[in-house]
Amino acid sequence: MPDQTKPATDRPVKHPPDLPGCTKKLGPPIVEIESVVKKFGDFTAVDGVSLDIFEGEFLCLLGGSGCGKTTLLRMMAGFEQPTSGRLLIDGKDMAGVPPYERPVNMMFQSYALFPHMTVEQNIAFGLRQDGMPRAARAKRVAEMLALVELERFALRKPHQLSGGQRQRVALARALAKHPRVLLLDEPLSALDKKLRERTQLDLVNIQERTGITFVVVTHDQEEAMTMADRVAIMDQGWIVQIDAPQAMYEYPNTRFVAEFFGDVNMFEGVLEEDEPDHVRIRSDELPVPIFVGHGISGREGATVWAALRPEKLTLSSEPPNQPHNWAEGVVKDIVYLGSTSTYIVELTSGKRVRSTIANHARDVEWTITWEDRVFVSWTARSPVVVTS
Amino acid sequence: MNAPAPVSLRHRVNQARLRLQASGQRLVIAVPFGWLLLFFLLPFALVLKISFAEFRIGIPPFTDLVTFTDQAYLRVTLAFSNYLRMVEDRQYLVAYLNSLRIAGGSTLIALLIGYPMAYAIARAPKGPRAVLLFLVVLPFWTSFLIRVYAWVGLLKGNGLINAALLSLGIIDQPLLIAGSDWGVHIGIVYSYLPFMILPLYATLEKLDPSLLEAAHDLGCRPWKAFLTVTLPLSMPGVIAGCMLVFIPAVGEFVIPELLGGADTFMIGRVLWNEFFLNRDWPVASAVAVVMLVLLVAPIMLFQHLQSREAPAKTEARP
């Protein structure tokens, strides 16, 4: 249990971040990563990452392939050693500490279940290594089987299970030792979409019930958004932004984040006017300026980008009665997705934008259809301006 | 009524294609079957036949099993005396036991040497791995006989190894290696090591390295992870390698002849003696048949047990 009364080290006390819209209270930092670099020959996989992970947190490391997210996870597990920098778990420097002596456990992307052992033996494997007495071991295994709802399959071998069941065995095995931190490497990538969505919620529930800190590596932004308390987006060995999913979506700090984390329409323009309460951007892609209802700290005349989420664009057949924030175009495509429809509109400048409209009613009138001339508009509170 | 739907035509074409495929599959299987029939089963039948014949002086040096009497009756004579001799004369039993002991010991040594080698090759980076595998099979490019003969030169009383050890002062009398069971062990291990390494390599190379990582992650020290994960999962390779070494080693003739001593009396020598010295083909055939049965019976039993376990593995999914 964390001891709040006495500081463990003389280093500055780090406070966990506030999580908007979340009742969860995070504890002190449990994993501290300080300017960690990992090189494989000439290739730098992780390039100076600093990151604190707090007790009880559900953190997602999100990024494309080769961004360094798995390498970072493997360094926490102890399978890779940092080229430089420090990695602390529970305040203890992990340099030279082998995986079998770390208070963390990992769930592998391939699950890595021992094929010659039954489900029960797989789950008991870690406990056996700790020399846990037989009775206690059996009790813990039964608990874990109940947690992942696999009681009936205790005596099966891994190859007699379905993909989803195997995934749950892997989770139970990694949780059995009650690690301080559970590392999950793409835990859902081998499941089909339906099962994946259900398992996302299962993972969140299990994390909340056990209180164990989860660090999940994923390339799927929806997955990260569904599960994580905080998301760290990585690119080329860097953490580009770390934030709660909502903040990440509404306030991306770079073009990369805006484009990676959800769909976005990006307009390149020149900063014409930067006042404390508003910003005006002139874009060659739009007939009128973009008006943003908040100030940014930019130099006038600088190139900036206005990011607009598709659901924040509205379509109309009549020209909107506003001097800015609209454009004219032709509907080129309509993607019907059940709950929403996405209209792809080609503006007069040739740029294509996406507008997502919720399908509120079943008998919705198709007022706007293919090749229709439409007007795209948005409010001053919708765009986010990024400078890089 | 309507004309037959085009579906039925397509159905018939499909049926024909499936039939063709099935016959193609049968043809493919027929090739190895034919080979085994022609070059294994047929010669074995001949040997089996001779083993039930009786010795006589002449060409061929055994009696016919099937003869016609004067009354044109068909007479089949089966002589079990050859097999009785196997039981009565202790020299056969001693030779069999010797063969099993030497082959078993050599197999164990080959396993102990071959396993680390196969493991190292399987873990080596891609480039060196190909070179190492090539080196393993490289000895096959020279004659087996020459290689075994070279060992005589190395191991004999005034051979290279003894000379080196003597000059270094490690020993003051030459070791008697060639001309003892140890010479035979060295010869067999050396000659059959590739047959141990290659199947071991094949299973170890397929082993998912993340299984070992998982074991380490769950608190297992490397040595224990080897015993609980790597070793059990490489058992198919261990069994295949051991069989590939043990079976030919039991009937080995050249190696004990060149590297063994007067008291290294293996079943291969017995066979040779019966065939070429005594020219007693029926007894020699009986020796061969008994050896085959002794070797094949445990393998069949093992396979039977394996296949009994297999259906349990593929029981229905939920």
From TrEMBL, chain A:
One of its GO terms (biological process) is putrescine transport. This is Spermidine/putrescine import ATP-binding protein PotA. Residues 8-17 have a biased composition (Basic and acidic residues). It catalyses: ATP + H2O + polyamine-[polyamine-binding protein]Side 1 = ADP + phosphate + polyamineSide 2 + [polyamine-binding protein]Side 1. Its EC number is 7.6.2.11. It comes from Pararhodospirillum oryzae. Pfam families: ABC_tran, TOBE_2. Part of the ABC transporter complex PotABCD involved in spermidine/putrescine import. Responsible for energy coupling to the transport system.
TrEMBL record, chain B:
Residues 96-302 form the ABC transmembrane type-1 domain. It is a multi-pass membrane protein. It comes from the Bacteria. It is found in: Cell membrane. The chain crosses the membrane at residues 27-48, 93-118, 130-152, 159-176, 182-204, 225-250, 281-302. The keyword Cytoplasm does not apply. Its main location: membrane. Keywords: Cell membrane, Membrane, Transmembrane, Transmembrane helix, Transport. InterPro entries: MetI-like (IPR000515), MetI-like_sf (IPR035906). Pfam families: BPD_transp_1 (PF00528). GO terms for cellular component: plasma membrane. PROSITE patterns: ABC_TM1. One of its GO terms (biological process) is transmembrane transport. Belongs to the binding-protein-dependent transport system permease family. CysTW subfamily. This is Putrescine ABC transporter permease. It comes from Pararhodospirillum oryzae.
